[in-house]
Amino acid sequence: MMLDDLSSLFLGPSFARGAHGELHRGTYKDDSVAVRMSQILDDYHNNLDSADKIQKQFDREFTFLSRLHHPNVLKFVAAYKQPQTFMIITEYVSRGSLRSYLNKIECNHELLSLKIVIAMALDIARGMGYIHSQGIVHRDLKPDNILISKDFHLKVADFGLACEESQCRRLTDITGTYRWMAPEMVNGRKSYNCM
After folding, report:
1. How far apart are CA 121 and CA 45, in angstroms?
2. Of 91, 117, 139, which closes a domain?
3. Can you list the positions of beta strands (E) in the chain?
4. 151 tagged catalytic
5. Whole-angstrom Cα distance, residue 19 to residue 39?
6. pLDDT higher than threshold 90 for residue 5
7. Are 156 and 70 in contact (CB under 8 A)?
8. Are residues 114 and 85 in the same domain?
9. Same structural domain, 104 and 165
10. Is 10 helix (H, G, I), strand (E, B) or coil?
11. CA 61 vs CA 135, 136, 160: distances in Å
12. Which SUPFAM superfamilies match (predicted)?
C-alpha cells in the first residue's frame, strides 16, 4: 500500500544508518514498525547517480516486499514516496540482525546448540524457498539482512538489490556483498537460477 499522507505514522528516533538512508522505529496505526527513510538532498553529496540508485532501490524494495507474504520474510506494511523522500514501512523486528546476535554470542564466548542452529537454518531456507518460488532472486543474502523476531524466528529482509529471476539473467552487473555472493557470480558466470 502506497501512503498519500503520513498522519497515521509516528516516526521515532533513528536506530541504524545505511549507505542510502536511516532506519527509524515508529508506530503506524498503533503497530510498532520500522521505517527505512531515504532522502535525496540538494547538496554536493548527492549527484544524479546516487539519486537514481535511491529511486531504483526504493522501487525494488516496494515491488517485492509488497507482494511477499511469509512468516520468514519481513512483513511489508506500507510505503511513502515524494520527489525527494522515500519510506519503506515494515514490521518492527525487535531482536535485530543475525549478524548482531552472532557477534554477541561470540563476544560472550557462548555456543549455540545444534537445535537452535538447525531451527535458524530452516527459517532462512523456508524464507528463501518461498522467495524463489515467487520468481525473485534476493542477491544480497547475508547475516545483516536476516532479522530475528521476539519469538526467535528468522526473517529475510532488504530487497533493495533483488530482481525478477527472468530479468536477473539479463543483468551483467555484479551486485551484493562479495564475501556472501553466490559462487556462480564470483566465478564470473553472472547468471542466477532460482531452481
Report:
1. 40
2. 91
3. 2-3, 9-18, 21-28, 31-39, 76-82, 85-91, 136-137, 146-148, 154-156, 163-164
4. no
5. 11
6. no
7. no
8. no
9. yes
10. strand
11. 15, 12, 5
12. Protein kinase-like (PK-like) (SSF56112)
What's the grid cell of residue 122?
Answer: 530452516
* One domain for residues 133 and 172: yes
Distances (CA, A) of 147 to 7, 115, 116, 150, 171: 28, 19, 15, 10, 28
136 sits in the region (left: phi over 0; alpha: psi -120 to 50; else beta) called beta
pLDDT at 102: 96
Q: Which tens digit of pLDDT belongs to each residue from 49-74?
A: 777 888 888 998 999 999 999 999 99
Residue 195 above 90 pLDDT?
A: no
* Cα distance between residue 97 and residue 115, in whole Å: 19
Share of the chain above pLDDT 90, in %: 59
pLDDT digits (tens, 9 = 90+) for 97-120: 999 999 999 999 999 999 999 999
| Domain-ending residue, one of 91, 122, 150 | 91
Could you tell me if 117 and 178 lie in one domain? yes
Marked catalytic residue, from 52, 59, 140, 158: 140
CA 82 to chain centre: 21
- Is the pLDDT score of 144 beyond 90? yes
